Amino acid sequence: MHRLYNSLEPRVMDEDMLKLAVGEQGPREEAGQLARQEGILFKDVLSLRLDFQRHGGGFVGSCTSAAWIPQCVGIKLYPNLRLEPAKAPAPIVSDILRIDSLWEFENLTKLQLDNNIIEKIEGLEQLVHLVWLDLSFNNIEAIEGLDTLVNLEDLSLFNNRISKIDSLDALVKLQVLSLGNNQIGNMMNIIYLRRFKDLRTLSLSGNPIAESEDYKMFVCAYLPDLVYLDFHRIDDHMKEMAESKHQYSIDELKHRENLIQSRLEDEQAQQEELEKHKAAFVEHLNGSFLFDSMYTEDVEGNKLAYLPGVSELLQAYKDKFVIICLNIFEYGLKQQEKRKLELDTFNECVQEAIQENQEQGKHRIAKFEEKHLLSLNAIRDESELTNFEMKIVEYGKDIMELFNVLMTLEMQLVEQLEETINMFERNIIDLVALFIENVQSLMAQCRDLENHHHEKLLEISINTLEKILKGDVDEDLPDDLRPLFVDKDTIFNAVGASHDIHLLKIDNREDELVTRANSWCTHLVDTIHKNEIMRNRRRVKEINQYIDHMQNELDSLECSDVID
Amino acid sequence: MEVLKEKVEEEAAATEQAEVAERGEKLLRPLDARREEAPMTQEMLRDLEKKLSEIEIVVPEQPLTFTKDSIDISKLPLSYQSNTLKEEHLLQVADNFSRQYSHLCPDRVPLFLHPLNECEVPKFVSTTIRPTLMPYPELYNWDSCAQFVSDFLSMVPLPDPLKPPSHLYSSTTVLKHQKGNCFDFSTLLCSMLIGAGYDAYCINGYGSQDLCHMDLTRDVCPLTMKHKEMVREEEKVPSKKYAIKPPRDLSSRFEQEQEMKKQEEMKGQEEKQRREEEARLLEVEKAKIDPLHGLRVHSWVVVLSGKREVPESFFIDPFTARSYSTQDDHFLGIESLWNHKNYWINMQDCWNGCKDLIFDLGDPVRWEYLLLGTDKSHLSLTEEEDDGMNDDDDVENLGKEDEDKSFDMPPSWVEQIEISPEAFETRCPSGKKVIQYKRAKLEKWAPYLNSNGLVCRLTTYEDLECTKTLEIKEWYQNREDMLELKHINKSTGLNIDYFKPGHPQALRAHSYVSMQPEMDRVMEFYETARVDGLVKREETPSSMTEHYRGRSDFLSYRHVDFGPRVKKLSLNSAESNPRPMVKITERFSRNPKKPADEDVAERAFLIQEERIQLRYHCRDDHITASKREFLRRTEVDSKGNKIIMTPDMCISFEVEPMEHTKKLLYQYEAMMKLRNEEKLSRHQAWESELEVLEILKLQEEEDDAHTLAISIYDTKRNEKSKEYREAMERVMHEEHLRQVEAQLDYLAPFLAQLPPGNKLTRWQAMCIKDECLSDFKQRLIDKANLIQACFEKETQELQKKQQWYQENQVTLTAEDEDWYLSYCSQAMFRIRILEQRLNRHKELAPLKYLALEEKLHKDPRLVEFLKVFV
Known about the structure:
The structure holds 2 protein chains of 2 kinds.
Chain A: E1 10-12, H1 15-24, H2 29-38, E2 47-49, E3 51-54, H3 57-62, E4 68-71, E5 95-98, E6 110-112, E7 132-134, E8 154-156, E9 176-178, H4 189-192, E10 201-203, H5 215-222, E11 228-229, E12 232-233, H6 236-245, H7 247-279, H8 289-296, H9 299-304, H10 310-381, H11 385-470, H12 488-563
Parallel strand pairs in A: 1-5, 2-6, 6-7, 7-8, 8-9, 9-10, 10-11
Antiparallel strand pairs in A: 3-4, 11-12
Helix pairs in contact in A: 5-6, 8-12, 10-11, 11-12
Chain B: H1 2-18, H2 31-35, H3 40-58, H4 78-81, H5 85-104, H6 125-128, H7 142-152, E1 154-155, H8 171-177, E2 179-180, H9 182-195, E3 199-207, H10 209-212, H11 253-285, E4 297-304, E5 314-317, E6 322-325, E7 331-338, E8 343-346, E9 367-369, H12 382-400, H13 421-426, E10 432-437, E11 440-445, E12 454-461, E13 469-476, E14 483-489, E15 494-499, E16 507-512, E17 521-525, E18 534-540, E19 543-548, E20 555-562, E21 581-588, E22 600-606, E23 611-618, E24 625-631, E25 650-653, H14 664-705, H15 719-742, H16 748-753, H17 762-808, H18 814-858, H19 863-869
Parallel strand pairs in B: 1-2
Antiparallel strand pairs in B: 3-4, 3-7, 4-5, 5-6, 7-8, 8-9, 10-11, 11-12, 12-13, 13-14, 14-15, 15-16, 16-17, 17-18, 18-19, 19-20, 20-21, 21-22, 22-23, 23-24, 24-25
Helix pairs in contact in B: 7-9, 17-18
């Protein structure tokens, strides 16, 4: 390391420095004049270089400290324009210690920060369009701060002090990764790189792991899609050898990865299923979930279940209850389908109507423009003043007519859509109401069942109580049940409490369903209305803008004439 | 036979009633003949009239009948010249059947059972059918088969149009002479169809005059018929639940109705006029009434449904190769039909032509069979079959009991039908055929017959007399420029050429009036074969329009307007003076990767005004599109600096104004880029012009050159491959000769010394062997001596030179020295080689000697003597 930064002043990146860097190059010659005239906005810059380079041979001998000269070249402006990169380096004489002030360069795709003394990767969060990032020859110790750079394809961290590969999860598009001359010592770091499906080029030479005998084989075996390793192409023979050598461990690894993958997929599928049920407002109703929840908080009920004859009763009750739940569930899904179909048809129809209307509008405009070209030429060529004025007036009329036609079309569409939307609104509300009604009647069945069960339970409890009072106590009566059978009130209260809890649960579930269904409905209708209003406003604005433009053109013609 | 009897009774009754049971009156008569229930006198008059007309018509010149003299009978195989026992038996059976038939149905014409063949031997018609599957895949289907037969043979009318011919030649003879009558045609076609697996039958019956004379002048040419456009039923999309209601219609319904009425009236009148016109035309076209209608004998083929997935029975006329439904008007009656296995007589009434006939050959009421026991029990009802059994009893009663029930048809006497590939390719006799249709003439040629590759020409005429040409269609084959069809419209003068894939510029079609450049023309291309994806290029004298598809730069359209050519004063040739371009318009399809506001939809370069207009694509939810217009002005401002870019040089309308596009820098860059692209577009337009010239030149050359492409698989025509093959054969032959030479007979000179013809004695053999060996030894020694002599000579010479060198060393020039040195080295080389050869010879000589000795021991001529000796 013969870096001479000791004699240099470490600096934090600031706006002046960036301005200088940007201003130094960019467009040249004629375009450069224009650029200077107008100034360049940071956000238009696509590529920026802030690295240090040994400047000119003549300097080397005499000045040691000033030999490292930062250069900012190759600013690219605008996606479709190519500018000449600057030839002359900028005379900034300092090393960058901290990355900062870069947030304005929001469209930057290429950033070079090599040959500085940066210690920490930071301040790059805003540069989400970055594709190419060079941080080589710095003093970075850990990979961090790259979580937002999802478009990054080429990352160079050559010659730093990194000891562990991690925090790269967000970089799904990574193709080239350069990590040479670092302090990576654990072979297992390579396994981390398996997640980058597009990774083709990797350099790791100059790391402790690269000294290992098995290094190349290991990398080839664990990263089979890799094409270049340490700037050499991996030949097929090598790949085969590596594969056969590490076959067992890789198979195992693959197996594990597959397992994880499938588990993830399963979970996802389940989640999706649940989402679907939720959309139908009947989640968890395809089983005994509701019934079970009724008994989870019901202490007395659980206790009473130990009474002779109650367990059978409970079982029968549960079976019936679950059947009703299933009914609700299936009905809910069916209704959901119906609603979806309704909504789809509606959207389709509305879309069609809008499309058709747009086509008409486009057609009108095309026709107008054809005429407009002709009349503009005619006006330009017209020499006689009276004719000229007449034509201008005519043209103005045409514009007004176009405006009227377009607005009429739009108003017509608004009317038509309003009618349709209202119809849809009525239908969807009816659908939801019907759904709620039917669910409520099913829920009422649940309640009936509960009441029935309650009566039976009460009967058994009273019988038991009488038996206990009479003295012929069942031996197998659980101990914690005994306190309940003290007198009639206690047992009444216990059974009643259990009953109340059950009813409450059922009511809650029903309320939840009804509320959600209703709110969904209102929300949907609101969104549709809002969207329609937005659409209308946009179209009106568009038409006005267009007409204004036409009018302006006409006005400018008149003006020019007056000047002439 | 009860059925037959009944039928006869019926017939008798009918004839009695009608009193038209004249001799010679046919059972199978058309409707009009039967209905006539006129008084006797009139009937007789009519008859007389008919007979008179018969006399007139029967004497047609017969230029095409081929007489027996042209057939060399002696070369025909034996089966042609005589009958086998089984065939004799069959003929007896047939005679018997015929007698019974004429007895039972006295009013019907005699059966066509066993005409004479080319050797004057009677042969049963079924045995003349020789089922053959042709080795050409093209002949596997009935339509191509029929087309081949009709193309290959030329038609000869029947000697007597009212009678079946007395002779029926074998198909082999017919094929050899390439002509025949309708019976020859249908026999050959039937043989091929049965061979290909169809359920086909020859029919002896009655046809219309047009049919019998192969007269197509009243038929529309099948090639001129337009394909009926498939009327696609527009599926009515059921109006959706939420479809919007159309805006209220405010126009008056009454007015609409009035308008409709008026239009309908107009239409009605037009329709009426058209119908009248059609009726008039029909009148003109209608043929004059044929006096022999219903009496003309014809033979054709019926293909019954069932085999080869034929869904419905149909007729094939072998003359024209056209298929007809069994209800067609042209077919007026059937006497009998046969295939290679059996013979059936039609017992159904043909008063209505063939329209009511039912082709259920298993039904003995409708079809009387000749041989029992062969298959064909199409009749589905079992009960009826029982009836059939009863009928058989009746047959016995009628004296048919002697017929051998298990008797089946003897094999065909005809040799295998063979068509040589040359004949198959040439098709028509002498490779040319002309067919006259109604308002059309079709000419066909064999491929390679015409030097320009013409194989077919269809000329359509405006009038029935074929005097005014309407249009000409010419089909070509094997053209090097892949020209397939040339369509010349005489009335408009428009030519359209169609090409197959493979033209150097991937041309698909070219329509033009004149071949001069810069005229109206349309060229279509196979766009997938072209790098630039050009689909179509239209030209007018002042513009050129190109359509593209599937380009990576999304260009879909380019239109170039040319101005009048500027006259140059200098003496430049016309080529270097292209027309100036006034305007180039280019359209692009949507590039889904770019946002709509940056994706140019149309750009126009107004070259002389130095103006560039851009129109961008419209966003999905918008109705207006961004526009931009660049004006170029090279002006100088007040300070004398060049103005680079000013805001008024770029007028733009943006749907959604953006910040960066307002900048002068952006506009400047955009304009610079556009100006580069303008140059490119101009260049491309210029290249297109050049290409047109090239295509025209190529076409002209091709029309002059007349070279036809020859497939590499075509061994006969492919001169190159033929030459190569012959050369290869020659080389092989020479190689063979050399090999023969190589196996020299080392004993030959010694054997030649012995008196010829004598057998070798052992002593002689011994002598020969010894002589041979000693001779060989001598030769080896001679050779060694020769090498030795050479060696010595070389050595001496070298020594001499060395001496000379040593003597004259001082006076030698450098050149001489060089020469000497090189000589020395060469001489040394020669000496060394000779030495090596000598050594080698010494080594090998004994081995060679031993080898020869062994060879002599094994020599077949000497071996027996020497073996004993050893």
